[in-house]
Amino acid sequence: MVTGHECAGIIDEVGVSCWRCDLCREGPYNLCPERKILSMPPVHGALARQIVHPADLCFKLPDNVSFEEGAKCEPLSVAVHAYSRADIGPETNVLIMGAGPMGLVTLLAARAFGAPRIVIVDVDEH
């Protein structure tokens, strides 16, 4: 199983995305019972020379954004979406459970949203 779901790269060929069910066609494709997720069995992840990915879920990066920066857009968007839903602002203290990659990206988003006090905890003291 090839891991990795945050990726950026060059599109070699464009195919047709397959959106058969009502959920996929109407927008909430994440609720589709047939959904196959990059890096979740049986679909291999992005740590490969080439991958197949739905064209509808590919986005052009601006010329001034590197592939490395582009690959970080997905985890950052998760953190920004969480803060938007939680209504985090300049008067909101934030506790982040877990200092792994998502926790650290969430920390950066908390700073950007102006949280005055941010605490991040983890079971690993390093």
From TrEMBL:
Residues 1-63 form the Alcohol dehydrogenase-like N-terminal domain. Pfam families: ADH_N. The keyword Zinc applies. GO terms for molecular function: metal ion binding; oxidoreductase activity. Its cofactor is Zn(2+). Keywords: Metal-binding, Oxidoreductase, Zinc. InterPro entries: ADH-like_N, GroES-like_sf. The keyword Metal-binding applies. Belongs to the zinc-containing alcohol dehydrogenase family. PANTHER family: SORBITOL DEHYDROGENASE. This is L-idonate 5-dehydrogenase-like. It comes from Hibiscus syriacus.
